Amino acid sequence: MSGFFGVASKESCVLDLFFGIDYHSHLGTRRGGMAVHGNNGFQRSIHNIQNSPFRTKFEKDIEEFEGNLGIGCISDNEAQPLLVRSHVGSFAITTVGRINNLEELKDDCFAKGATHFLEMSSGEVNPTELVAALISQKDSIVEGIKYVQDVVKGSMSIMILTSEGIYASRDKLGRTPVIIGEKPEGYCATFESSAFLNLGYHHYRDLGPGEIVFMTPSKIEVKQGPGDKMKICSFLWVYYGYPTSTYEGINVECMRNRCGNLLAKRDDVQPDSVAGVPDSGIAHAVGYSNVSGIPFARPFIKYTPTWPRSFMPSSQSQRNMIAKMKLIPVKELIKNKSLLLIDDSIVRGTQLGETTEFLYESGAKEVHVRPACPPIMFGCKYLNFSRSSSELDLVTRRVIQKLEGDNVSDEILKEYADPDSERYKNMCEEIRRRSKFTSLRYHRLDDMIESIGLDKCKLCTYCWDGKEDEDC
């Protein structure tokens, strides 16, 4: 994932921008960047944040930056913001999203006169640079953003800094949020609403799907109104959203509490305590405890001073090792205990299996597992939520391959996604057996949607049910 933040202020924007971006650090692990515009024109800095926090890398930059307009990002992949000079003017650009037809759009740019793109170390084209090239094919920035929204397959939210103000655009189906905050000194635009709370801003409004606005220190001007169809990512609430953030009027922490409530209402086990896998599983576990009456406990604590983010570094084997090293047991709360463990999800199955193993090694008698979402059946094709290169990275698909062989039809997959089917029960039992859970019960999709509180037509649930953008 990635996250961005922008400020248009009557005063210096630098500190607000610095802290606003820093509050997105849970969304990315590789690059951080800031760009501001002031009396000296554009200033821009990008740093590698793989081994140290955003905050420490940019402390020197903020002493040198000056300006009242600025944008920045935390990125899990490409370097940004980029500085661009084109016939529509000079601008800085940062994006959040995923382009599934990147090669097609790159070739289209070449056909229309583009001579080259800078190649990243991965050998790929920087998606943000491609977006800038697409925008520059049109006669204005607004027309260019509209064009990008029309031609990109996937999702693409955009923030563009000019000398006059900031363009903010939410992706066509609103898969990720863009939220406007206001205070007397000006406005901000952000992925995470919690990023502006300690900076003195108040919620102004959420942009609608595909909406484009132009933000200056004194006003918000709508350049394109919102579309009437939304498919916001459900994982915002279940996993990668920050607990203090609110999207579409629904707070993440409150949703996770409701999620735990509904998990408890369908359950019949009586463990000694219920625990959440830090950090995103904790609120789910509190909700479960509140309804069930089973005490909430913390039988292991996450060591955060040097490993604050669970999905760093980029190597899967290193991530697994760090995930194991970060959790330190409280053996007095584990030995001879029956534990119920809630995690936000099971993706590959490796980390939760190792967590269960270390609980047994610490003396646990039973480990019951309750993921806070349904089984993940399909790799995300709209956001860079997962690094999975193949759907066989998903534990569900490996189990289905074992049970069915290589040729699995869409109809069979639908059965495995149905919590009332025999195939679903067989899949869950095999996952339970492999990971040595005492019992395993996933959150149902209908309950998860109820936990969020939006109509299913407004939610993307593709990774669980494989349903794309069909009309409801």
What fraction of the residues are assigned to beta strands by DSSP?
15-25%
CATH topology of the largest domain: Glutamine Phosphoribosylpyrophosphate, subunit 1, domain 1
CATH class of the largest domain: Alpha Beta
> What would CATH call the homologous superfamily of the largest domain?
Aminohydrolase, N-terminal nucleophile (Ntn) domain
Uncertain runs are: none
Task: Give the class from helix and strand content and strand pairing.
Answer: alpha+beta
Q: Which second-level CATH architecture of the largest domain applies?
A: 4-Layer Sandwich
Number of helices: 16
How many domains?
Answer: 2
Distance between the termini: 27 Å
Strand order within the widest sheet?
3-2-4-1-10-9-11
* Biggest beta-sheet profile: 7 strands, antiparallel
Please give a structural write-up.
This protein is of the alpha+beta class and 472 residues long. It folds into two domains: 1-229, Aminohydrolase, N-terminal nucleophile (Ntn) domain (Glutamine Phosphoribosylpyrophosphate, subunit 1, domain 1, 4-Layer Sandwich), CATH 3.60.20.10; 250-463, Rossmann fold, CATH 3.40.50.2020. It is 31% helix and 24% strand. The chain has 16 helices and 23 strands. A seven-stranded antiparallel beta sheet has the order 3-2-4-1-10-9-11. A six-stranded antiparallel beta sheet has the order 5-6-7-8-12-13. Helix 8 packs antiparallel against helix 15 (445-452), helix 12 packs across helix 14 (422-435) and helix 13 crosses helix 14. It starts with a strand and ends in a 7-residue tail after the last helix. Mg(2+) binds at residues 280, 343-344. InterPro entries: GATase_2_dom, Ntn_hydrolases_N, PRTase-like, PRTase_dom, PurF. Its cofactor is [4Fe-4S] cluster; Mg(2+).
